[in-house]
Amino acid sequence: MAINELGNYLRARRQTVRPADVGLPTVAGRRVDGLRREEVALLAGISREYYLRLEQGRDTHPSDQVLASLAKALNLDEAATSYLSRIADPPPQRSFAPLPGSLGDDVFAFLDGFEETAAYVINSCQDVLAVNERASRVFTFGTVGSNMFDTLFSEAARENLPDWDDHVLLGLAALRQRSDPDDPRLHELVGRLLVTEPDFARLWGRHDVTVQSSGVGTTYVDGVGLLTLQWQSLAVPGDAQLTLVAHYAEPGTPAAEALRSLG
């Protein structure tokens, strides 16, 4: 998967940009949805041949100036630009995801201190490493060693979650942004899902990258039905591959009562 990650990313991104988005005329009968290679090269101020080498993986070390020009040509936001730079020039010290069983009991005790909040810690591959009691009752992935995507691609999630594609795309964008492309655990997870889940292959191929630290999410809870909660994610100090996620509801609301009843 990490083979030619730069070229794959450039190709996926140019296919999502419409000519009108970057000031190019839209010609009737155009046969591609996104930008052509020569159009990206023109917008970035580089030769078509050089851009082709980048996409094909024959040149994997573009300069910072070229990367900045490509990011502008492809309308990349800050998170996507950061990801482009990271895969073009990986840090010498790789940062792989800690695995389930690697966290101490003190982390679980810390999570249990979150009153009326469903809280858990995940790694960059979205494996659950620690979870409090309320989260274990709210979420079907609420056990150490489970993975968020096994829940998202379950039949129950497909049937019960409104805007299912949006939920999956948000998770995949975070997976790509937070994980090391050479992480063996990432290869294992993505390789398995590519084989077992056709929808995963379709959505993973978009190469979306984003950072979202808060939002509102809906989950299906047996005996409760659809439960909509606010959430916040926080980086764990000392390990960039760990994220603390807390789901909560405004006091006095039906969602808060439902969440309290599950504690």
Automatic annotation (TrEMBL):
A Pfam short name: MLTR_LBD
InterPro entries cross-referenced by the UniProt entry: Cro/C1-type_HTH, Lambda_DNA-bd_dom_sf, MLTR_LBD
Protein name: Helix-turn-helix transcriptional regulator
Organism domain of life: Bacteria
SUPFAM superfamilies given in the database record: lambda repressor-like DNA-binding domains
SMART domains: HTH_XRE
Ranges of residues in domain HTH cro/C1-type: 34-81
Gene3D superfamilies: 3.30.450.180, lambda repressor-like DNA-binding domains
